[in-house]
Amino acid sequence: MAWFERNGVHLYYERRGSGPSLMFISGTGADLRIPPSGFDYAFADRRDTICFDQRGLGRSDQPKGPYSMADYADDAAYLLDTLEISSGFVVGVSFGGMVAQELALRHPDRVERLVLCCTSSGGAGGSSYPLHLLPEQNLSFEERLAITDVRWADPSFVDPLRDEALARLVSPASPSEGAKLQLGARSLHDTYDRLDKIRCPVLVAGGRYDGQAPPDNARVLAERIPDARLEFFEGGHPFLRQDPRAVSVVSAFLDEEPLEVHTNG
Q: Omega of the bond prior to 226 within 30 degrees of 0, cis?
C-alpha cells in the first residue's frame, strides 16, 4: 500500500511487475479495492504496471472541489515524477481515456504510446453519456439497457456482465461526494480542438455496441489524432472483458516499440 502527495492531496497507488512502464487510468467511480483493475488485464503482464485511485475516490483524499480534467492529468504526471519514470505507456479506459487525452496534451513527453478505450473527446467530437444527469432522468427500460450495454445487435449474444448491469439498475448506489465531483469534471471534458497536437502512437479502441461512448465518438478520436489506429470489438462499454481479442490487440500495440525497462523492487 502506497500513497503520493501533490499539493497536500494524498493519492493512493499500487505498482506491480517489471518491464516497460505502463500507467493504467481507470474509469468513472473506480476504486482499486473493487475489481477489475488494470492489473487484471493480460496487457499488464511483463510490464511495470501502475494503477491509482483518482482524487476523491477509493483510498485517495477527497479535497474540496470543483475538480478539473487538468487536475486529474496533472495527478497522473506527478505520480510518474514520484516514481522517477520519465515516460511510459498509458492505457485510459472510459473516464480514464479522457484523463489520458489531457495527460498526452499537457505532458506530451511522458506518454510513449497511448491506448484510448471506450472514451470520447467531448465538444464537437461527441461526449460520453451524461452520467451526471442520470439520477434526475426518467429513463425508459430501453434507454437504461443502452446505457449499461445490455443491448446487442445479435440477441443470441450472451453478455456475462448482464446480471451485474441489471443489478446496478435495480439497486443504484448513491454516488459519494468525490464521485459527484468527478462527474462534474467529466461533464466539461473537451479535447476536440486539441487532439491534432497528440504526437505519440495512439490506438483508439471501442465496443461495437457501446451505449456510453458510441462508436462514432471513437471514429472522431481516430480521425482527429494524427496517424491514430482504430479498432472495434464485439462488446459494449466493457468490451475489454467481453471480447477476448481486445486485450491481445492492445498488448500487440504496446509491444511494437521497446522502452527502457523499469524494475519494481
A: no
Q: Rounded CA gap, 260 and 87, in Å?
A: 9
| β-pair type (48-52, 88-93) | unpaired
Is position 263 within any domain? no
Q: Measuring CA to CA, which residue among 213, 182, 232, 184 is closest to residue 119?
A: 213
What's the total number of domains in the chain? Answer: 1
Of 206, 191, 260, 200, the closest CA to residue 237 belongs to 206
3-state class (DSSP) for residue 125: helix
Measuring CA to CA, how many Å separate 36 from each of 1, 93, 198? Answer: 17, 12, 28
As a whole number of angstroms, the distance between CA 98 and CA 79 comes to 17
Alpha carbon 3 to chain centroid distance?
Answer: 20
Q: Is residue 264 part of a domain?
A: no
Q: What's the pLDDT tens digit per position in 12-27?
A: 999 999 999 999 999 9
pLDDT tens digits for range 98-139: 999 999 999 999 999 999 999 999 999 999 877 766 554 455
Q: Is residue 95 part of a domain?
A: yes
Half-sphere exposure of 99 (CA within 13 A, CB side): 29
Q: Which residue is associated with the grid cell 489506429?
A: 229
216 assigned to some structural domain: yes
- Residue 159 binned pLDDT confidence (cut-offs 50, 70, 90): low
